[in-house]
Amino acid sequence: MKVVVVESPAKAKTINKYLGRDYEVIASFGHIRDLPAKDGSVDPEDGFRMIWELEDRGSKRVSEIAKAVKGAEKLILATDPDREGEAISWHVLEALNARKALKGIPVERVTFNAITKSSVETAMRKPREIDQALVDAYLARRALDYLVGFNLSPVLWRKLPGARSAGRVQSVALRLVTEREMEIESFKPREYWSIVATLATEAGGVFDARLSAADGRKITRLDVGTADEAAAFKRDLELATFSVGSVEAKPAKRHPQPPFTTSTLQQEASRKLGMAPAQTMRVAQRLYEGVDIGGETLGIITYMRTDGVDMAPEAIADARRVIAKEYGDRYRPDVPRKYTVKAKNAQEAHEAVRPTDMGLLPKQVARVLEPEQARLYELIWTRTVASQMESAELERTTVDVIAQVGPRRIELRATGQVVKFDGFLTLYQEGKDDEEDEDGRRLPPMSAGDPLKRERIASTQHFTEPPPRYSEASLVKRMEELGIGRPSTYAAILQTLRDREYVKIDKKRLVPEDKGRLVTGFLESFFKRYVEYDFTAALEGQLDRVSNAEIDWRDVLADFWRDFSAAIGGTKELRVSDVLDALNELLGDHIFPPRADGANPRACPTCGSGQLSLKLGKFGAFVGCSNYPECKYTRQLAATGVDGEGDGTSGEGGQPGVRVLGDDPETGLPVTVRDGRFGPFIQLGEASAEKGAEKPKRSSLPPGTTPASLDLEKALKLLALPKEIARHPESGEPILAGIGRYGPYVQHGRTYANIGRDDDILEVGANRAIDLIVAKEQGGGRGGRPAGDPGRAIGKDEASGRDLVVKAGRYGAYVTDGEVNATLPKSMSAESLTLEDAIGLVNAKRASGGGKKTTRNTPKRKLTPRKAASEDDTAAPAKKAAPRKTSTKAKTAAKPKAGPKKAAG
C-alpha cells in the first residue's frame, strides 16, 4: 500500500479514484503546524529559530497519517505545486520524523498542475525530493510576517488605541488606498472646453471633428480653458469654410491577451463578473479540485495560483483543434502563440490558469455546475482559447480638416476605426475601465481637397475629474505593477483590510475608514521605510531569490531585522502627544477641512474659545475640544457632515454635523440627526447645560440606514423605540423592539435576542419577534448570532442521512450535522466549505470522541441581561459577575497568558 497526502478531502476522494486500491489518499486539511501566537516563536538571537506547534486538528491528522504509513510501501507527498504546498509537505515530513513514524519508509514528492487522471498518473512516474529552496522562501516570508506583526502591532496598540494590527504587505496596500483618497480630497477641478464640428460630405456622410490646432499651434484637451476662448473659436468656425486637408488610413492589428495568471483572473472576474478576489479564488478552487461530470469527478481547470502565462504543448494543440472546429481555420494562426513574462521566479514553473480539457465547452458543463462556477469557467475557457486565435485586423483612419475664416486657419481632426477581420474578438475582449472611444466608429468616404458642409458647431464645458478610487481589481493590478506581495496573497490581503475595518466597499470601490487612515498616518510618521513601495517590492525580490536558491533566507532576515528592531526600539520613548501632533499635521486637511464661510475650521462650535484637535480614547480616535472638561464637544474623526457632503459646513441646525429634520408634532421640539463619537444618531430637542438636567432622547440608526436617507417620519418612529410589538404566548408579557449597543433587538423580560440582518426593526412583526424570543429562551442565538438563524446548508451526508450546516459560532465558524460540531480550521472559510470537506471534518470530530454535550455536571451560571437603551444610543452594560476563587494548585497549573494575536501580512 502506498500512502498519498494531499490538502483537502475533496481532492483526496478524486485522486483515490484515479490511483486505485493500491493507494490510500489522506487529507492534511491544509497546514498541520503553525507558529504559536506568542512572543519568541521566531528568535532572531538564535539564527531565527522557529518554534512550530501542532494544533489539536494537526495532531490528529499526523496521527492518522502515521497510522496509515505503518507498514506502507511508500509515502508520497502530493500537496499543491507552490511555496505553500511545498511547505505543507515539509511540515508533514518534519512532524512524522519527530514521531519517528517513518522508520526507513521512502518518501517522495510529486506535483501535478491539474487533477485529471493523466496528470496525476504522469506525476506519480516523476517523483522528486522536497524543494528546500521553496521551503526556505516560505520560512523567510512566514518569519518576516511574524516579526512585523508581533513587534509592530503592539506598538500600534499602545500608541494608537483602536488600531487592530499592522502587517508587512497589508499596511502597504492600505497606504495605496489612503493615498488615493487624499489625492481625491486635495484635487482641484480645472475647467476646459471641447470644440466639436459636425460636418457633412457632398455625398451626405456625417461625422464629427475636434479642434486640434489653430494659427500653427497644436491645441490639446485642456488648452481651451475659458468660456470666452471657447466662444471665440465657435464664432470663427461658424463663419469658416471647411475642406478635407488629408486622409490617412493605416492597417493595424490587435493581438489577444495571454491566458490567465492568478492576478489577471482576479481582475477580469471582478470587472466582468463582479466577483471579489476572495470569491474568485474560492470558486476556482472548486473547479480545480473537481466537479462531477457524467458520474466522474474531474478537475476542470489547472492550478489557480500561478504567475506563469505559458501552456503545455498538448494544451496549445488542444486549443487549436477547438478553434478550427468551432470557428474555422481562418481563426487559427499558422504558428501557435507563445507567451512569456519578464519577471523570473519559481512560481513561473506553473502553467497559466486554463481548462484541463479545451473540448469541454462552457455550454456543456453549465448544467452540472453552480451558476458562479459556470460563469468563472466560461471566463477562463474563452480567455484561454482566444489566446491562441488569430489577431484582429483593423483599419484606423485619420482625417485632418481645414477651416478657413479670412486669414485665420483652424484645424480639426476626426478619427475612426473599422474591424476588417474580428479574429479573437469574435470570442473575447478584455474588460477595461476606459474603453477606446474610437472603437467601431466608421468615417464616410472622402479625399483630400473635398469640400465639407458645416452642420453645427458645439462648445461644451468640462471639468477635470480626480483619479478614481481603487476597485479591488485595480488595486490588485497596481500592487502587481509595484511588485508588492504576490498574486496568491492579494485576496487574503484585501479581505484582511476589510475584516479589520481599515477599508470599506462603496459602489464597488475601496474607501479608507478613519481607522485605516490613522494607521497609515502613524506608520508614515514613525515607520516610513516599512510602508514604502520600493522597499516592500525589493524585499519581495529578495524572497524570489531565496526561492531560486540564489541567497540564504537567514541573510535576508538578518538584514531586515537589524534596521527594523532599531525602529521598534526608537518608539519606546514616544509619547501619545507626539503621535497626536504628527497625525494632526499629516491628516489636518481630512480632519479639519476648510469651512465654506472662511471661519477657523479648528474652532470649537460649542464654546467658541477652544481649539479642536485629535484625541485618543479607549475606543479609538475622535475630535475633541481643548477646553475639556468644561467643554465636552466631541465628534467623529472626519468632519463629513451627516448628509455626506464632506464640506465641513454647518447643517440647517447651525452646527457642524447637525441637520434638522423638522419638529416633533407632540412636543414641538426639533428632531435632528447628528454625528456622534460612536456614529450618527437622532436626537429630540437640545441638551441642557444645567446640572441634573434630563438628557434629550436619542436613538442610533439601524444597520443599512444612512443619515442622508432619514426623514422626519422615520426619525420619529426610531425615537419611539423601544415599543411593544407582541405578547409572549405563555406569559402574556409584552415583547419590545428597540436598538441597543449591539444593534436592533427584541426583548421579553430579561431575555434579549438580536434581530436578523434582513429584518427591519421598524417593520418586524409579532410572529417574527415571538420566534426570536422563544428560540433564545430555548438556548439559541448565542455568540452574537441572531436567534433562529439556521446558518448555511451544505448538503446531506448520504452515509449518515444527516444534513450538514455551517454556522458562525462564538469561537469561529463550525459545521454541524445536528449531533457533532466541528470547528473549521484556519485554512478553510465558511464561504468556501464544500460538502466533502464538511463530512470529513464532522467524521474526524466524531472519531476523536467529540460531539454535543447533553448534560452538565455543574449548574448553569445565571446571567444578568443588559438593560435596553433608554436615553443614549447604547444599551446599559450588564453587571460583571463576581470572580471565582481559584485554588493554589489551579493557579500553578494555569497556562501563561498568550501573546499578541497573530497579524497577517
Give your account of this protein's structure.
The two termini are 41 Å apart. The longest helix has 28 residues, at 132-159. The chain folds into six domains: 2-130, Rossmann fold, CATH 3.40.50.140; 139-187 and 468-577, Topoisomerase I, domain 2; 191-248 and 396-415 and 442-463, Topoisomerase I, domain 3 (Distorted Sandwich); 262-386, Topoisomerase I, domain 4 (Orthogonal Bundle), CATH 1.10.290.10; 592-687, no CATH class; 723-847, no CATH class. The chain contains 23 helices and 34 strands. It has 905 residues and is an alpha+beta fold. The chain has a six-stranded antiparallel β-barrel with strand order 9-10-16-15-12-17. α1 links the parallel β1 (2-6) and β2. α9 (277-289) packs across α14 (487-499).
Give a quick precis of the structure.
The protein has about 900 residues and is α+β, with helices and mostly antiparallel strands.
What's the CATH C level of the largest domain? Mainly Alpha
Span of the ends, CA to CA: 41 Å
CATH arch. level architecture of the largest domain? Orthogonal Bundle
Largest sheet: 6 strands, antiparallel, barrel
Strand order of the largest sheet: 9-10-16-15-12-17
Strand content: 15-25%
Descriptive labels:
about 900 residues, alpha+beta, Topoisomerase I, domain 2, Topoisomerase I, domain 3, 4-stranded parallel β-sheet, globular
